[in-house]
User: What shape does this take?
Amino acid sequence: MHAFDALDGALLIDKPCGCTSHDVVDAIRRQFHFEKVGHCGTLDPNATGLLVLVLGRATKLSERLMASDKVYAGTVKFGETTDSYDADGQLVASLPVPPMTLAEINEQAAMFVGDLMQTPPMVSAVKQGGVPLYKLARKGIEVERKARLVHVYRYAFSSYQEPEAVFEIRCTKGTYVRSLAHELGEKLGCGAHLLTLRRLKSGPFEVANALPLDQIRKLPLAELEKRVIPFLKLAELAKG
Assistant: This one.
């Protein structure tokens, strides 16, 4: 069996705001002249936090690693609805925020815990006929989307200062956290959108063990090697 290279493995990156997950993959590939680089789960451009990159022969493990549960922290802004359900989109409605307490917000948020059928937002990267939905949405085209089953283990708000509330969520892969923010706003009668989102965990990996992209890019190759989770360890983690 061919021995694994020290650079066949996973690299944990703390993604900055404003770039796509593909931009990060591209930057690492070009910076270190890697042939194969992939990632385990897209983050929206405005989202930050843990992005697991797979290098070299570890790219074949990406599907298994991608299937892991995720933990996010974020902020919901009440009173404003956008077409993308997040701060990236166009404002489509603005309503006064009724007096409400943190307990009342959590009471409504608890209704999303468990199995949910979620329809991907039109402004999303899901492909229909090979075309990402957001490209169709830009042309004003709305198409029927298939709902898919997701599971929310925990959706809890820790603070509220009108009109913004801070939450943490643990959920299965493919959960649209911005859809939950949108629907929570509907339940509370004032509309809402996802203001910020940060991925804290993906399966066994944590953002606490990741380095920001700009720091990773400054590392000499020998230092980068030390940060790579080796293929065989990764394969064990993928089984779990």
